[in-house]
Structures are given as C-alpha cells and as structure tokens.
Amino acid sequence: MSAVLRVPQRDRAVAAGNSVEPARWREMFDQAMARIAGRFGRVEPRATARVYLLGLLSKALRKNCRRLAEQAGHARPGPMQRLLRYARWDADAVRDDIRSYVADHLGTDGGALIVDEAGLVKKGHASAVEAEAQHLVLPR
C-alpha cells in the first residue's frame, strides 16, 4: 500500500520550511551517488551523471544539456548527451536505488516525500499532453 501527500498551495511555505543544511545536503547527495555508482559500467558516465543531476537540482533557469554542461564547466554538451542517448545504465534500477536511499534516510511511518522544484504546475497548454504535478510515492 502507498500513500501520497499533496500539499495545498497555502501550505507550501510550511512544507518548504523543513530543509537541509547545505553541507548535510552535499553529504546526502554523495551518499546517494555512491549507492547508484555501480549502475554505470564506466567512470565517465558515472561522473557525467553526477554533474547532470547537480545541474538538474540547481537553480538554473534552462536545464538542457548545453546549459547544464556549461554550468558544469564542460566545453561542450557531448558527454551529457551521450549519457542520455547511448550510455548503458538501468534507469529503473537507479530509481529503485534512490527510492531505497530516501526510505532508509528520510522515511518515517506514514511519511511521504514530495519533490517539487518550484511549486509550479505545468499547464500543458503548449504541449500535446496535459501535464499534472508529479509526486514520488514511497511504499509503507
């Protein structure tokens, strides 16, 4: 059985108030990356995945391969594009590893984690698919 906690707009300030200190955040990120490191057969895609994820989690406004590569100090977006197009890694296994890490370190009975980068729901007006807020559901 799973549970999802949806935070109403008026309560988001309260939810955002529970944050992690930057040094602790980096430590936890490093631990999560160590957990998924074995899912990448080579050092290069593992290192690229790390900077790619840091870019996705950053405050950068545009999060495409070119912009994230520039932010990471890469001369070109090739390594990130290779990670997403050609590198061999099991996305489902990485997801399961991260879910397990979150449950081990942040989980409580009846708790739920909502990852929400800005609290903005994509409306889907300019896309072919109507989009809705997405939430990570952890099994109890």
UniProtKB/TrEMBL annotation:
Domain Transposase IS701-like DDE as annotated: residue spans: 39-128
Pfam families in the cross-refs: DDE_5 (PF13546)
Designated name of the protein: Transposase IS701-like DDE domain-containing protein
Source lineage: Bacteria, Bacillati, Actinomycetota, Actinomycetes, Kitasatosporales
